[in-house]
Amino acid sequence: MQLTCSFLPQNDGRCGWYEMLPPPPPASPLRGEAKADWIVLGAGLAGLAAARRLAELQPNAAIALVDARRVGYGAAGRNSGFMIDLPHNLSSHDYTGDRSEDLQQIRLNRGAIDYMRDIVQRHAIDCDWREQGKLHGAVEAHGERALEAFAKGLTALGEPYRLLDAREMQAVIGTGFYRAGLHAPGCVQVQPAALVRGLGKTLPENVRLYEDTPVREIQVGKPHVLITDQGRLTAPRLILANNAYAAQFGGLGLKGRILPVYTYGSLTRQLSPEEIAALGGEESWGLIPADPMGTTVRRLSNGRICIRNSFTYNPDVSTSANQLARVRAAHWRSFERRFPMLAGVELEYTWGGALCLSRNGGTPFGELTPGVFSAVCQNGLGLTRGTISGKLIAEYALGVESELLNIMLNQPKPVANPPEPLLGLGIRSTLAWKEWKAGNER
């Protein structure tokens, strides 16, 4: 079977998380012929976790981790930096759903956080790791209703939370824009690009990392062969951890079942001491909108504010300058409404990044064909779901059993999508309707 990689990571704007870091050392792209026992394609959260876990379980195996760009530059370093422990269903009006499924999701998410915490502490990875929970904020009446439904869902799950009124919200975040809020304590906030780059720097010695190595073609067989611009990589076993870019692989049953949906972030310049005083509130916090189509906001301890909203369906897994300009304008409107006291603060960076979703929240986790394993499609929970998917796919491939692996294997598989152009029309109209319905929550 031959798979053509038509879509590869592009320059989807200037990601502030990555740009704030010092320049990385020179990359080591693949050149010439190379062989390994395992290939992991994609060095995001899933790929890094899979390569690390393989190396832990098979210290004498040769593991090749391949990425088209630099570690931390892709989608894993472009999210809002929330390691969410609770249910986070983007298609729900309040993030929760079936109680038994939510309980399983919590176990998976917390398994990911525990695994990542150990790595970060053991290797002293400097990623602004903060176990400070997350806020949910409501702006309009329908946002308050969603917040109430979320609180009821957390009560049914036996999860702790604290409700905040408008005055209490303003004391934390400085602005009086929100009518009500909820604080859930289990979320971890990180600098995502710093976390991912730190994971790449601290891989076990038997993992060989090939960056700036776009794969043009995959020959699935005995063995599998990856053909790149400057070489060929051969191994008997392959783990796909390239998330939204795997949507093009029809021969493996992924095309037509998973969806590349872009979301976007902007980061302000650093606030001055006078601006920080005018804003007030605490120096660091993260806020999730009560309405999933609303605006996520983070205030960083370094004096910057991150805004994230807007969703677009991009089947070619890239965005355009015009799209980024429109999003930047939307981000500025959202920022201006929330922080009128910061009228002179510019958005220094704006970027896009691909989520990988399925219409039913399912995942193609497992063995797709002999010797080819999938850890793609995180359904909006990239930091936690990517981490646990990568760890568990390595264990699954090596026959290591666990309760978490059983939970993952029992997740539904993605359902088939309608054909184009119906699919694109349906997704784009649904996104537009939901964003309009979000109102000032956005």
Radius of gyration: 21 Å
The helix content is 25-40%
**What is the tally of beta strands?**
21
Q: Total helix count?
A: 11
**How many strands, which pairing sense, and closed or not: the largest β-sheet?**
8 strands, mixed
Mean of all residue-level pLDDT scores: 95
Query: Based on helices, strands and strand pairing, what is the structural class?
Result: alpha/beta
Runs in which pLDDT lies below 50 for 5 or more consecutive residues are none
Shape annotation = globular
Give the neighbour order of strands across the main sheet.
7-8-6-16-17-18-15-19
Distance between the termini: 45 Å
Strand content bin = 15-25%
Oligomeric organization of the protein chains: single chain
Short characterization:
This protein has 442 residues and is α/β, with parallel strands linked by helices. The chain is built from 11 helices and 21 strands.
Textual characterization of the structure:
With 442 residues, the chain is an alpha/beta fold. The chain has eleven helices and 21 strands. It has helices at 16-19, 45-57, 99-123, 141-157, 166-173, 192-201, 273-279, 321-338, 382-397, 403-409, 422-438, and strands spanning 2-4, 32-35, 38-41, 63-66, 82-83, 134-138, 162-165, 180-184, 188-189, 207-210, 215-219, 224-228, 231-235, 237-240, 259-268, 285-289, 296-299, 305-313, 347-357, 366-369, 372-374. An eight-stranded mixed sheet has the order 7-8-6-16-17-18-15-19. Helix 2 (45-57) runs parallel beside helix 9 and helix 3 crosses helix 9 (382-397). The longest helix is centred in the first third of the chain and has 25 residues, at 99-123. The protein is globular and about 65 Å long. The relative contact order is 0.20. The mean pLDDT is 95.
